[in-house]
Design brief:
The complex is a heterodimer of chains A (241) and B (404).
Chain A: E1 6-15, E2 22-32, E3 37-41, H1 48-55, E4 63-68, E5 71-72, H2 78-87, E6 89-92, H3 104-115, H4 119-132, H5 148-160, E7 166-170, H6 178-193, E8 198-202, H7 205-208, E9 213-218, E10 221-227, H8 233-240
Parallel strand pairs in A: 3-8, 3-9, 6-7, 7-8
Antiparallel strand pairs in A: 1-2, 1-4, 4-5, 9-10
Chain B: H1 3-16, H2 18-55, E1 60-65, H3 81-86, E2 96-111, E3 114-124, H4 128-131, E4 136-139, H5 144-149, E5 153-156, H6 158-164, E6 174-177, E7 180-188, E8 202-206, H7 207-215, E9 222-227, H8 233-247, E10 261-265, H9 266-309, H10 311-319, H11 324-354, H12 367-394, H13 397-402
Parallel strand pairs in B: 3-8, 5-7
Antiparallel strand pairs in B: 1-9, 1-10, 2-3, 2-6, 2-9, 4-7, 5-8, 6-7
Helix pairs in contact in B: 1-11, 2-9, 2-11, 2-12, 9-12, 11-12
Classes of the chains: A alpha/beta (241), B alpha+beta (404).
């Protein structure tokens, strides 16, 4: 078996000092293999967002080791960290986080631009990514001209356009209604089928049910880690409606 | 990622917020233009003043009797043409170029029934025209020979020519002055007025003729002494003082306050006036500096707000893998474009504005004010655009993303 995409050992994160100290993560160890589809669930305050931010190299742990595709992320300098975020990780935010007043296709192109891809090639790949999420016809629209679900799908396209080793989604459906939630989840299902590694954070069971593996986080520790048969029926039901 | 790409990013960033970019540039534009124009107006008025004084002739001094009123028992000297002649002395006064004794009185000129009162009917020698910086426009001045022969010829000023000879060439016409006939030989070139007096309302005739007809053979009003060089004026003044003290038997040790004559130095006048004008320029410069400061605070404000507001965007860009250097470069280029474009437009506006006369003053641009205004606003724009951008770019992406 090849090396895991994600290998986290004894991750701890402490916020604040003295009386106000909060232990967000109390020694989390976790490995995720290539092609896996993992849902991390937990109530708010369980540390799942902290874990996600560390996995996405947006934040640094207080202690512990984090190997991303075999690279120790905690030892990287700013430049290499930027490179890792660009090449290895596709991050999807709860709040979409598209650049305002910038067209969908330009948003999707952004990570490619930072990767140094030539403009023509960039446009082609961005359009292909938008096609994957079914929004090729909305390429010229700006974020405020798109619905929440569409914005999130643009964000997904932006996350996968660099062909990253890992797709991280932090409550991707948290700001969406059930219809848009299904649209986005369907895209995740397709990506998983296509062999992408996905780690998704959620507190909604219907989102968690669709993953191949479920991890439950309580108070900064993993209390449950089990494989499951993904539920796919929801997609069929909604696509007929 | 190439530099060219970053420039394109910056341009896209600016065009995505057209109104804000335009307002930022407007702020810089007004700041720069106000400073340049204010200084230009100050400089222009200073220049106007010094031009007027220079028109009087800067390389001359005027010797006058100190007038009857002088307190402290000071005697009044009677200046005579002989004293004037004594001033032409190559050994004692080597720097004197010419000496023109001057008598002056008011007179009424009559031509074919038309009367005109001339405020200053001047009697002098031929050298006066160059010494007093009063060139003849049409016709000719009188000669030394005219003066020696006491010929009744006169050179009239523009105002006199217009009053007495409307639509007629005054040359060779005869005018009556106090019952004597004078032949007009020339008309003076129009001269800028120095004050309330119309300096074109004058007539100039040979000293001998004027004394004969108008003033009599008493004392003369003043002596105009021309130096060989504007830089020698002070030397001439001391030489003239020495000779006059000799001639008028003034004890030089008794102090200058009681001399029976006084010497007016045009370059001293110019100096005083220039100082006044400099004060004026400094005052306007201070006003300009304040407007530059206010403009600078405006630029600071809008730059800080712009970048702070985009901290989230910086977080997103970092999360997508933008290196710090690229983000910083993008924001610096945006700030540079805004301040340079705004500054350049401000200079253009000031240049256009300076071609108009503002409150009666023709502004004269001071090149250093252009450099200063432009430099300060660009520096402020860069600093306050760059500082928060570099701060945001240094943040961890998650902190930048959470920034509200």
């Amino acid at each position: 078996m090849s090396k895991p995409v994600l290998d986290v050992r004894e991750l701890r994160k402490i916020y604040g000092t003295g009386e106000a100290t909060v232990h967000a993560l109390r020694g989390v160890s976790l490995t995720v293999d290539r092609g896996d589809y993992v849902a991390i669930m937990g109530s708010s305050g369980s540390g799942k967002s902290t874990l996600m931010n560390i996995l996405g190299a947006l934040d640094v742990p207080t202690s512990g080791q984090y190997l991303l595709d075999g690279v120790d992320v905690s030892r990287l300098a700013d430049r290499q960290l930027a490179l890792a975020r660009n090449r290895l990780i596709g991050f999807i935010f709860q709040a979409f986080n598209l650049i305002p007043r910038t067209s969908a296709v330009a948003n999707v192109e952004l990570p490619l631009a930072y990767a140094g891809v030539k403009p023509k090639e960039r446009r082609r790949r961005a359009m292909a990514a938008l096609d994957v999420v079914g929004l090729a016809d909305r390429a010229k629209h700006e974020p405020n001209q798109l619905s929440g679900g569409q914005q999130q799908r643009v964000a997904v396209a932006r996350a996968l356009v660099t062909e990253p080793a890992l797709l991280l989604a932090d409550e991707p459906t948290g700001n969406l209604d059930s219809r848009s939630t299904d649209d986005v989840l369907e895209v995740f299902d397709q990506l998983s089928t296509a062999g992408r590694t996905i780690v998704i954070i959620t507190h909604e069971t219907e989102v968690g049910d669709r993953a191949k593996r479920l991890i439950r986080l309580v108070d900064g520790s993993i209390v449950l880690d089990r494989r499951q048969a993904p539920v796919l029926s929801a997609a069929g039901r909604h696509s007929q409606a | 990622m190439s530099f060219f790409e970053v420039v394109r990013f910056a341009l896209r960033g600016l065009s995505a917020n057209k109104l804000r970019s335009a307002l930022t540039m407007l702020g810089i534009l007004i700041g720069v233009a106000a400073v340049i124009l204010l200084v230009a107006v100050g400089n222009g008025s200073a220049k106007a003043i010094s031009d007027r004084i220079e028109a009087l002739g800067t390389n001359t001094i005027t010797v006058m009797s100190s007038g009857g009123g002088g307190g402290g028992g000071g005697s009044t000297a009677k200046l005579t043409p002989e004293i004037a002649d004594a001033l032409i002395d190559p050994t004692l006064a080597p720097d004197v170029a010419s000496v023109s004794p001057v008598v002056s009185s008011s007179a009424t000129l009559t031509y074919e029934g038309t009367d005109h009162d001339v405020t200053s009917f001047v009697g002098t020698t031929a050298g006066w025209f160059t010494a007093s910086n009063t060139p003849v426009g049409t016709g000719a001045g009188f000669t030394a020979d005219d003066e020696a022969q006491a010929r009744r010829v006169v050179v009239i000023g523009q105002t006199v020519a217009e009053e007495l000879f409307p639509g007629v060439d005054p040359i060779d016409k005869q005018v009556t002055v106090s019952g004597a006939l004078f032949t007009v030989v020339g008309v003076l070139k129009e001269k800028a007025s120095t004050g309330f007096q119309d300096s074109n309302d004058t007539a100039v005739a040979p000293l001998s003729a004027v004394r004969e007809v108008l003033t009599g053979y008493g004392s003369i009003n003043s002596i105009l002494v021309e130096a060989t060089d504007p830089g020698k004026v002070d030397a001439v003044q001391s030489e003239v003082t020495t000779i006059l003290n000799q001639q008028l038997k003034v004890d030089a040790t008794s102090g200058s306050t009681s001399t029976p004559y006084r010497i007016q130095n045009a370059s001293q006048l110019l100096e005083t006036q220039t100082e006044t004008a400099d004060t004026f320029t400094t005052l306007l410069g201070a006003v300009a500096a304040i407007s530059l400061l206010v403009g600078g605070i405006g630029i600071t404000n809008i730059m800080l707000v712009t970048v702070t507001e985009r901290t989230r965007e910086i977080g997103i860009r970092k999360a997508l893998g933008a290196p710090r250097r690229v983000i910083l470069t993008q924001f610096l280029i945006e700030a540079t474009l805004l301040s340079v474009l705004g500054g350049a437009l401000g200079v253009a506006a000031a240049l256009i504005g300076s071609s108009f006369t503002i409150v009666g003053v023709k502004p004269v641009i001071v090149p250093s004010s252009v450099g200063l205004a432009l430099g300060v606003s660009i520096a402020i724009g860069l600093f306050f655009g760059g500082l928060p951008a570099s701060r945001a770019a240094r943040l961890r992406p998650i902190d930048a993303l959470r920034y509200e």
